[in-house]
Amino acid sequence: MTPSRRPTVVLWSSPDTLTGIDARLQRSGIRLVRLVSVETQPVDPQRWIPSIVRASPPPDTVVVTSRVAVDAGVRPWRRATGRGNSSPEFWAVGPGTAAALRQAGVRRVRRPSGVGATAVAHALGRSAPRNVLYLRSDRAGPQLARALRAARHRVRDVVVYRLRPARRITARARQELRDASALIVTSPSGFSELRRQLGLVAFTRLARSTTVVVLGERSRRSARRYGFRHASVAPSTSPYRFSRHLLRELDDVRT
Predict the structure, then answer these.
(1) Model's pTM, two decimal places?
(2) Can you list the alpha helix ranges (DSSP code H) found in 108-233?
(3) Which CATH number applies to 3-37+167-254: 3.40.50.10090, 2.30.30.370, 3.40.50.2300, 3.30.1250.10?
């Protein structure tokens, strides 16, 4: 099979998302095209760290929903508090975030059985009340914090980085999207940005004709609202399980 005829999958996400799937898909004859949907901009730690350091009681649980939040939030917070403080329990939404936490020196890392912020809320919703520090982007929204507060947790909801639109989508990227056998979108905001970049007509055509794989139920609901007829939730962000799910979806497209 020639490279030009291999099935193409477009990953529309922030940089370094779903690291590890490239080689697995390539071995299965799938061509993966990464298109950057947003760029990240850390918030100056001095704007949020002092209030967290002074807060009492200190957090016993830290929720992190992306690799970027590890660099923009966890690392400066740990430097400011020092290693002599009691070590809280960290919750990561997936294996990529968990790996980034361990690389940052965090040892107590836990993950929910599902994928996404909703799975974290469900897992913590069954535990005794905690003092939670939630480190997120400006686009993540307050839904997770609200869900945790509804479960009687005390939550400090802190924006540690902002997302900005990437450079204008190129003609080549538009063609890749038109030719795609499947699309991967990793957050609800990705759909609104993709529609803005493509324009309504091209986006509607894409939604009607292309299978999309997402992370979490919030993204699946967003996909349906934006008109995608077939949207499935990957069971995990681990390279093996995600790739296996995606390959099954491609099999459905080709049959």
Answers:
(1) 0.74
(2) 117-125, 143-150, 171-179, 188-198, 200-209, 217-225
(3) 3.40.50.10090
